[in-house]
Structure formats: C-alpha cells, structure tokens
Amino acid sequence: MRRLRALLSGVATAALATAGLAAFAAQQASGASADAAALSNRWYAAAPYLMPHDNNPPDAGAIMDATGLKAFQLAFILAPNGGGCSPTWDGTSPVSSDTAVASVISAIRAKGGDVSVSIGGYGGTKLGQTCSDAASTAAAYQQVITKYQLKAIDFDLEEPEYENTAAIAREIGAAKILQQNNPGLYVSVTTAATADGTGWFGKQMLNEAKAQGFTPNNFSIMPFDGGFNGAAAQTSALTNFNAILRTTFGWDEATAYAHEGFSGMNGRSDTGEYFTQADFQTVLDFATGHHMDRFTFWSLNRDRQCTPPDNNGKTSGTCSSVAQADWDFAKYSVRFAGVTPPTTTPPTTPPPTGGCTAAAWSAGAVYTGGNTVSYGGHTWKAKWWTQNETPGSTGEWGVWQDLGPC
Fold first, then answer.
1. What is residue 292's DSSP assignment?
2. Fewer CB within 10 Å of terminal CB in the chain, N or C?
3. E strand segments, 102-201
4. What is the CA radius of gyration of the chain?
5. Other beta carbons within 10 Å of 211
6. Peptide bond preceding 76: is omega within 30 degrees of 0, i.e. cis?
7. How far is CA 144 from CA 17, 88, 219, 379, in A?
8. Which residues are catalytic?
9. Are 300 and 3 in contact (CB under 8 A)?
C-alpha cells in the first residue's frame, strides 16, 4: 500500500497509541500472560490498520469506546534496516526487545479486543527479501506470533517485494508453514489492485500460492492509488478480481468471494483520489452482499478530520482530508464485523392483526440479513444483523428495507 510511508517517513512519534506500559510491565513481572481475546474471525477480517509508532497514533481504547471496534491491524513488521532475518517494527525496533507495542496490545486486550499484525507494506525491506528460505522466513514471523500470542496475521505483499519472485515464494511458503504450525491462525494476503483486479505481479503471487498449495482465509486487493475514484471503480475492480480468483484456483463465484477481501484508503489517497463515507458504505454493501471475507482500510491514524478539513488539497498520514467526525470510517469495519452475528433466533410471536403475516418487530430480538418483520402496517426485511433499530427510522445505517404495506 502506498500508505504515505515514503511521503511521511519523518512523521514518527515517540508517543504510542495507548497508555498501559505500567500495566504490561506488572503483568510481565507476575508471569501472567496477555491472552488474546476470543474474537471471531470476522473481527480480524474487519480490523483497520493502525501504525503504533508513526503518524500520530490515536488511542486505541478511545476508538473502541467510541465505535465498538474490537480488532486492530498493527503495521508493519519488516527486516532490520541494516539487514538480517529477524523481525522489527518498521525496520528499527526489534520485536525481541519490544515493550511499547506490547503495551498497546495489552491495553486493547484488557478492553476485550485483540490485534492482527501486518507484515510488509509499501517500501522498506521485507523479511522475504533478506531471509534465506521459506523456513527461516517463517521462523522470523513465528517470533512475532509467539511474542504477542497472535490469532491473526496479514501478509501485505507489494512494492518493491512483490516484483521479486524468490522473495514472494519465500513469503508464500512462510505463510503456509505458519498456517500449518498455528492451527486456527487467521491469515490474510493483501496486494495491489488495478482496474482489472490486480496486475501482473499480483497474478504471479496468486499463481505462486496455487503452486505451493496455499489457501489463506482471503486474498485482499487495495483499490486505490491506481486511477480509482469513488466506489464504482472499486466494486468493478473487486468484481474483476473475483474472476481472477476463479480462473486461478478453479473456484466458483461464491467460493471466490468467500476468499476475497477489500482494503481501502479513507479520504484522500496518495495520488489524489477521494473516498468518502458514502463510498465506504457502497463498498460495504457490495462486500456483505457478495459474502466477501474481509473489509478493512488504511488507516485509523487518518480517521479524523484535518484542519482545514481538506488539508489544502494534500494527503496526510494523520487525517483524512475530507469532512468527517473522528472514527467515521472505523464504523464501517464495525458494521462489517456485525454481519455475522451470534446465533440467535428471533422470538416467535403471533402474527399481528391487520393482514401482516410476518412476526411483529421486537426491540429485544436479534435479526440477521433476510429476516422479515411487520411494523406500522408494513413488512420489513433486514439487510444485515441488527438489534433495537426500529423499522422505518433512517438511523445511521438504514438496516431495514420496506417491502410495502401488508
């Protein structure tokens, strides 16, 4: 992803996203483990990216409190800037001696959330480039999994690494080893997008995965920084990428969508494209409507309004350059995670009078996409998971579709 790493590499900050270092130190001293929360895979699939070291990191706990977000995609694990096959944060902070990011993770877990960790990103030297083979690459990433007790990991394979066939083979091989050695590990693979879905190097990566017999939870594309403006261009690319997955792996359309993900960029992209809240809603509807596996974005560091709101027509790593309230875009990740609800059956109620055959809407019931209710003399159908949202109210999301008078 062109995540302003080159553009804003000097915007590092010593302040991390949350307090909690003292709590983490006490926990370590007592020998207690910071066990990951038991989140569903849907939360890891919805986790937005957060840089805990750079770009004025926000307080993860405050975002959780404001939005209900439970999962974060922490970025990025790279090779040491001086070379070698050991994991670091951003090429500078060794994972082996880290306490700062660990304190962020500890604070998130203390509030019932969890994290995934992202490998790679745009720019920098990747471990797939410096380690000698897939086994040593996997061993480096296993240090990260073990250190932070991870239940999810993201391979962000893009420039310049994905142009190196040997490096990509090592990354894919490492992902397969980690998947085998860590049962239940949620693995996403993220790569660049084109209008046709993904380019030559993205297709080469998919072919490498096929050759190695590796299937992650999803392959995600990033439809931004490539001539995309708005949701229509993004959903078109997702449709085309689905065709590529079908051709590569021999999947049918539904299976391909079940292994497909979206990774967007909120606000103004590096190349001057714009993606508003309305665009996110359109792509969210597409993703949920096609039962896609992942919906995420770059980044929470940018999920707040600039001053002035348009940032004088510039892209920032610390704000979105569009008019918004804090954490507007995070709410779409929360909504995506909520599409797969707890298994709850709406209570059975007698059919209401007045010709309506669907059960009466109940404020305490949990409804899933496709459930119908009657309310106000009309029949309503839920578009996704919902509870205590009155049919006919516009609300924040417009979950109920009016099917007309009974």
1. -
2. C
3. 114-120, 152-156, 186-192
4. 22
5. 10
6. yes
7. 19, 9, 21, 51
8. 158
9. no
Residue tagged 């410096």 (tokens): 130
Task: Tell me if 104 sits within 8 A of 113, measured CB to CB.
Answer: no
Do residues 172 and 209 lie in contact, with contact meaning Cβ atoms separated by under 8 Å?
yes
pLDDT category at 43 given cuts 50, 70, 90 is very high
Task: Name residues whose C-beta falls within 8 Å of residue 183's C-beta, 6 or more positions apart in sequence.
Answer: none
Tokens of 171: 């990354």
CA distance 61 to 68: 10
Total residues found in the chain within this entry: 406
C-alpha–C-alpha distance, residues 192 and 206, integer Å: 12
Closest CA to 3 of 160, 173, 225: 225
* Contact in structure between 84 and 127 (CB atoms under 8 Å): no
Distance of CA 346 to the CA centre of its chain: 30
CA distance 116 to 185: 10
Q: Measured between alpha carbons, how far is 104 from 119 in angstroms, rounded to an integer? A: 18
pTM strictly above 0.90: no
pLDDT surpassing 70 at residue 346: no
Q: What is the DSSP letter of 290?
A: T
Question: Residue 37 is inside which H or E element, if any?
Answer: none
Token pair belonging to 114: 């969890």
Peptide bond into 269 cis (omega under 30): no
Whether pLDDT at 195 is above 60: yes
Mean pLDDT over 140-159 rounds to 97
